[in-house]
From TrEMBL:
SMART domains for the chain: ZnF_PMZ (SM00575)
Highest taxon, organism lineage: Eukaryota
Protein name per the record: SWIM-type domain-containing protein
Transmembrane segments: none
Length: 233
């Protein structure tokens, strides 16, 4: 696409090469595509292309939005408390059941497992963990075989001890960007008889979800006459 753009709109290329630099006239300064292209952001936005997450709050606060500031703050407070408690209960129940992953992750992996049966997996190099997942056809291109290169290692030793010891890489980029195994990785796992849930990013674990929803320490707030004195505007 970059090459296409070069032919049709060289000015846009000039602009993008300077975009994000500290000093755009400095020819020696490296270009910084991670500042404007999601492809290069290292998965920071987790493949989310929209701001729907924050937009949805607008509709949630539709009624409170018409109230004075105090009412708006109070409404936000009660809703936040409600959401945190609901989610805390769900994740605690999940933890009590001994489930390693939240339901959403489990359902996604089950959906992939059903579809993965149609994929042909070729072991290219087991030691290097290189595989090829071949799809007989895709919806828009019947008769065309799609090939995905997959790297999957169970005994991967990351240099950074904070990183998971499992490594899943696919040409479709979904595991790298979302931390969840794609259809092709699931197919390779089925082929090798490995547990695909070992390749889910640890950040999604039930244990971490419990930590997230238990961090907030909410307490009822006192009546106005008990508030600390304030002398400002
Ligand atoms: Zn894939």
């Amino acid at each position: 696409m970059w090459n296409e753009l070069k032919k049709t709109n060289p000015k846009a290329i000039d602009y993008l090469e300077k975009c994000g630099k500290e000093n755009e006239t400095d020819g020696n300064e490296q270009w910084k595509p991670e500042r404007w292209a999601q492809t290069y952001d290292g998965g920071y936005r987790w493949r989310i292309m929209t701001s729907n997450g924050s937009e949805s709050l607008n509709s949630r606060y539709k009624a409170e939005r018409r109230l004075p500031v105090v009412g708006l703050v109070e409404g936000t407070w009660y809703k936040t408390v409600k959401w945190f408690n609901e989610r805390k209960q769900i994740t605690l129940a999940r933890q009590a059941e001994g489930e390693r992953w939240p339901k959403e992750i489990q359902l996604k992996l089950m959906k992939h497992t059903r579809k993965a049966a149609a994929i042909n997996v070729i072991t290219v190099d087991i030691e290097r963990g290189e595989f090829e997942a071949q799809l007989p056809f895709e919806k828009n291109d019947p008769g065309v075989t799609w090939k995905y290169q997959v790297f999957l290692k169970r005994d991967y030793q990351p240099r950074d001890p904070q990183l998971p010891s499992m490594c899943a890489w696919c040409k479709c980029r979904k595991p790298q960007l979302t931390g969840i195994p794609c259809l092709h990785v699931v197919a390779v796992c089925d082929h090798c008889r490995w547990d695909v849930s070992d390749f889910v990013d640890e950040r999604y674990s039930t244990e971490n979800m419990v930590k997230i929803w238990s961090t907030c320490d909410f307490h009822c707030y006192e009546d106005e006459d008990k508030w600390p004195r304030y002398d400002g505007l």
